[in-house]
Please model this.
Amino acid sequence: MAASLVRLGLRSIALNLERTAALLSTTTVQNQIKLIHSKATCTGTVCYLPEREAELDRGIYRRYSKQHGRPDQHRRQDSDSASESDSDTECKGFDRSEFWRRKMRTVHNILDVDKDGLISFSDFQLFADRFKALGHLDEEQAKEFTAIIRMTWEEQWGAIDPYNFVTVEQYLEDMHHVLTDRSLKKRAHRWLPYLFKAVDKDKSGYISVAEFKLFFQCLGLDNEHAAVAFAVIDTNGDGKLSLKEFVKLGKDFFFTEDESKVSKMFWGPLIDV
Model:
């Protein structure tokens, strides 16, 4: 009799455990289905995915970087990310004027060579290859240019891998960060002299309007835009730009929010969106 009671007790416990496991399994599956069909909300450079309805009521979210999925050691390290405050998740580029943001979106569009809305290292390489293909850089200059392009990418955007890309929002934030970091600001556009040398066809040390058209062709822009831009940025009217003038105009485009500066014409017409 005692043995029968023990067996009945054990059977009852086993049945309860099975019911509990089934309930937990069903709940887990339902939660996973909810996550699969949940719509992520993106703010600045961070995307939020709701975990469960109870957490939604309390305003709790799981945060994903737009570079989520890449190995930790390959993710771009941001010196401003030490704090977990809300301000660290906002795109600081949006604190700047709409004029400046238009300029940055214009350059993002130029560097996005394959026009998929993202800048990858492949785009950055193709951009540089257009200038090297002109054939005006000697072998040593071409090697230096290639090395600087690679170094610039790694310093500003991190690892060279197919999963690392730069959205418009990320580009705005990164360029804002460049302007607020003295060392980055000094190094960020050191590839500009190589663009000048690549289009200085006659090696005169100056760029004529005809050579400036080569520059715009490499940017994917037409000759008409080049002629208009050159007429504006050639402020002394001598019909040529020196290396110093070219580099200063290129940097001023990124650094100033003053709409009266002629450097706004350097990278072609500003995009409207």
Summary: The beta strands are 41-43, 46-50, 61-65, 119-120, 165-166, 206-207, 241-242. Residues 98-265 form a domain with the Recoverin; domain 1 fold (CATH 1.10.238.10). Residues 2-37 form the longest helix (36 residues). The mean pLDDT is 76.
